[in-house]
Amino acid sequence: MTDPSDLRCSEFVELVTDYLDDALPTDQRSQLDEHLETCPGCQTVLAQWREVVRLTGRLATTDVDHVDPTTRSQLLATFRHRHTP
Fold first, then answer.
1. Can you give the pTM of this predicted structure?
2. CB neighbours of 14 closer than 8 A, spacing ≥ 6?
3. Largest CA distance in the chain
4. 22-34, pLDDT tens digit by residue?
5. 85 vs 44: CA distance, rounded Å
6. Structure confidence by residue, pLDDT tens digits, 56-78
7. CA–CA distance, 54 with 36 (Å, rounded to integer)
8. d(CA 59, CA 56)
């Protein structure tokens, strides 16, 4: 990645967990930060992942049924897409 405007959203989605874990090289993280400043879709993905991380520490199996249907659908679609070869 050389220019944040060249960053595809799919690349951000692939790197979002490393981003949240602060496991990216400084230059790559900076590029992602710049991309996030101008991409509402990736901002939404990041917010959803942050919510997942926040909830996982206290999430019970019965809680899954009470997740907002839109959020649940978006998360499931992301998981399915990520695991599709």
1. 0.60
2. 82
3. 44
4. 999 999 999 999 9
5. 24
6. 777 677 777 777 888 888 877 87
7. 20
8. 5
